[in-house]
Design a protein that fits this description.
The complex is a heterodimer of chains A (156) and B (396). Chain A is an all-alpha fold and 156 residues long. Chain A folds into 2 domains: 50 residues, no CATH class; 82 residues, no CATH class. In chain A, 48% of the residues lie in helices and 0% in strands. In chain A, helix 4 packs across helix 5. Chain B has a domain of 268 residues. Chain B has 15 helices and 2 strands. The longest helix of chain B is centred in the N-terminal third of the chain and has 35 residues. Chain B is globular and about 75 Å long. Chain B starts with a strand and ends with a helix. The chains are: A mainly alpha (156), B mainly alpha (396). The interface between A and B is medium-sized, with 23 and 24 residues.
Amino acid sequence: MSRFKDAGHLFRFAFLFVVAFAVFLVVRHFVVPRSFGEYGHYRGAAIGEIAAHPIHFAGHQACEACHADIADTKKAGKHATVNCEACHGPLANHAADPSIQPAKLDTAVLCIRCHAASAAKPKDFPQVDAEQHSSGVACETCHQPHSPAIQAGGAK
Amino acid sequence: MSGVEGYMYPNEITLYWSVLIVLYPYITGLVAGAFILASLERIFNVEAVKPTYRLALLTALSFLIVAPLPLQLHLGHPERSPEMYFTPHATSAMAMFGFVYLWYLMAVLVFEIWLDYRKDIVLLSQSTTGLKRILYRIMTLGSSNISPRSLAIDRKVGWIVTLVGIPSAFILHGYVGFIFGSLKSNPWWDSPLMPVVFIFSAMVSGIAAVLLLYMLTAKLRNQPIDMPCVDTVAMYLFYIFILDFSLEMLDLIHRIYEADESFRSLNFMVHTKLYFSQIVLQLCIGTLVPILLLAIVQVTHLSATIRKRIYVLSGCLVQVGVFAMRWNVVIGGQLFSKSFLGYTTYKVGLVTREGLLVAIFLSILPLAILSGLLKLLPPWPKDEQNLVEAAATHTP
């Protein structure tokens, strides 16, 4: 018995640990979201919340329904596989209400997002040093963005 | 592009792990090293280092309290860091490390210090007055039992805690090396030797730090330095330093002999961008010179004054060398492109969240905490006698 008496202070220290662990469990109970771990190591309810976000992109089918002429031009050119909203930005609002006009694009800034020269890009991907290539002149001066190859014998 | 030579992938141009991430392994290294020194007396019965035992424990605690701060300042959302504890992911080394840190802090260091100081705390709770008395009373946890039997139990339990603490200290710092060593995408870090090198360099820096702090505190208290003690500490420092240096050289020779596809790029980096920090600071000034100085003491009979000067100089150089090692690992691993075709530059900010001033502050903070702990829990053996006398006069 006296052995326990002389070790009493150790039990007090151990009790502190138990209290700290209990506090941890209580705090954990309140701060961890209910749906955590439902499907994996994340908050299950996040899926529903993200799905409920308003849709910003209309999709190329919606664009082509009204802009069939541009869709035909695009299909024949190098940009056939580039989605409309990749350049024009999300336009679900415009598709729902055509009176909402999309912003006018500045090709001097837009095109080099993809076509600026970089050693990391495949060699056969068209890329230019914009300053040397056009000295700031907008790309659409020579290239038609929906079918960018210059038709009249110019550089392709 | 400014600061970039050759080709860097876009996500490699800016360094994401800053000087604070250099500071973090340096600080945890000091903790692990200081604890290993304390364990020399407790487990391996090296009586000569006894005067440094308590100081080493308090040093380890001061630095361990500060260790997570560089990480918190590095995080974009530090308020989310407790989530690591609430919803830990078993496959994340960082998440698991959070528990290692807590274990080491509470179950090893705080518990061992409490056990070792319990008698002093009880005596201080009886001899002091006012706020201090309340503080010491709280620290006794309501038990003033300092009977010879209870103190004998403390010693036994303390021995077990230290025994458990040695692998814990190894895990604590081995983890830091593991985080780097397990990154297979980075040839500068990817090495199974990394955790081992980190542990040994941690021991070197921690032992040297306690040696310096012991000599400094003795000087500030106008007390004579226990020469057999510092000689023994310096001897262990020398032997562990030799092991550390051998392991680092083994890693280097292995890399040179293996000469994989990254070798040319890394070799160029060591000879250019890392030349000063790696060759000059880490290897020459921070390793070879202190090893040479400590070796001279081992093989010659120098006067106490000269030996003390050599220990101070070696201790300071060791700190420079180990900090440079952490710098070269953390920063060096981010300076070269994984395409092996280019290099970027790291410029330390001054007054930024991860800048130089914050790094300096975090380096000084453990020393400030230590000075507070030294006042609260004096580690000097002489004070113990005074305590007993003071408690006897205050006890009604």
